[in-house]
Amino acid sequence: MNGIDLPQWVASIVKEEWTSIEVFDLELIRDVNTGDELVDTLKSALHCVDPSPAVRPEVQQILQQLEEIDTSNAAPLPQPKCQR
Fold first, then answer.
1. Half-sphere exposure of 59 (CA within 13 A, CB side)
2. Which InterPro entries does the entry link to (predicted)?
3. pLDDT for residue 77 is more than 50
4. Residue 77 and residue 9: Cα distance in Å, rounded?
5. Quick one: residue 17, left, alpha or beta (phi over 0 = left, psi -120 to 50 = alpha)?
6. How many other C-beta atoms lie within 10 A of the C-beta of residue 21?
7. Domain locations in the chain?
8. Which of 37, 42, 66, 71 has the most CB atoms within 10 Å of its CB?
9. Where does residue 17 rank: exposed (0-12), middle (13-18), buried (19+ CB within 10 A)?
10. pLDDT tens digits, one per residue of 14-73
11. Could you give the C-alpha distances from 39 to 52, 54, 78, in angstroms and in order?
């Protein structure tokens, strides 16, 4: 294969903690909570593409991780303003 191994590159970026700027579109990371949520989701995704299939998590484990990410970073949604 001639090129970059994408999961390996992303894993190296995550280890260096450059993730927000290097990996995600700036529009996605404007909100601090969203940025943290994206990084946590990315870390879970990296486990899914581990070179060793035996180390990869089961689907249920990933679903649980994603639910935990969703609830731990959830902020109350702003209430819409009614225009009359």
1. 0
2. Ser/Thr_kinase-like
3. no
4. 34
5. left
6. 10
7. 25-72
8. 37
9. exposed
10. 777 665 666 777 777 776 667 778 888 888 998 999 889 999 999 999 999 999 988 765
11. 22, 24, 23
On the CB side of 18, how many CA atoms lie within 13 Å of its CA? Answer: 8
Residues making up the chain, counted from first to last: 84
